[in-house]
Putative Metallo-hydrolase/oxidoreductase, Beta-lactamase-like protein (Pseudoloma neurophilia), 320 residues
Amino acid sequence: MPIKIRIMGSGPSSGVPSIKCRLSGGCQVCKTVRRTNVSILITKYHLTDSGSQEIIGSVLIDCGKHFFDQFNEYLNIVDVDFKKDRLVNPIETKKNVNLLLNIENLSNQTLEKSEIVQENIKDSDQRRVDLIPDLILTHPHADAISGIDTYLMMNNGAMPLFCDKFTFTLLKESFKYFFREPSLKRVRSFFTEEKSTILKDNLTFKAGNMTFKSFEMLHGRCTAMAFLIEGKALYISDCSEITENQLEYFRKLSLKFLFIDCLALSGYNIGHLNLEDVKKYVARIKPEHVILVGCSHEIPNVKKLDDFFVSYDGMEIDIE
């Protein structure tokens, strides 16, 4: 079945425009481009008889500082009409009181009259559960985990988490409530060890009705996970070096798509690749298509660099 990969965010931890750059006057990229924390949403679907795409599984890789804006932008473009077979505990919509001010006269900033208006509010139990993805994390840096609180508030009940042992332990120690069922169950969902999968190098696992394989990559002084998606695309968002053994393995995959970290055109960065690094690795891996992700303001606002696609927020790729 086909999959769709949506670039939720195409930028680095600082985002683009860079605030530091703007404080110095701003470069051309910072004046014209918006790139949020790197993240992708993978959707598996099948085509109905009417030609529409029916979602049968989805996965979000990383949930950073900009997740709230990223997911709301995604909801703006998808069909969010309610269908009974997609609802959790469908109940009759309740009428809630919403205070709206109907101001007729204001004198010296004093409210003269207000009116209480009854308005239909969609009950929070009626939600498109097919739009709520499983969550995979590459590593525990802020640009990968800082949106988890928002993510958990999209649903309720126990949820799975896919990450390495270090990330899982750090989250459990730092954000205990992520792993505790709330007393008011309608407030948010929570992670459980029973539903979660601890990732390691060369592990094949299932998430969102799709098959993934995880790879432990060097990311400066720590590591981050990369993922082979349905055997078709390799996603390497945070990486400072690809080892010889990994290069040989990736080349044998005959990849259709390689999504790869590219922070800058050149110059050393302890945790990320630059364009010169990418050229060297692509020559070894030999994918059909290359998409640069995690791009800072040093990467120009162009469609392609050296025959590599430059990702942008909202970019979508359909893979058969």
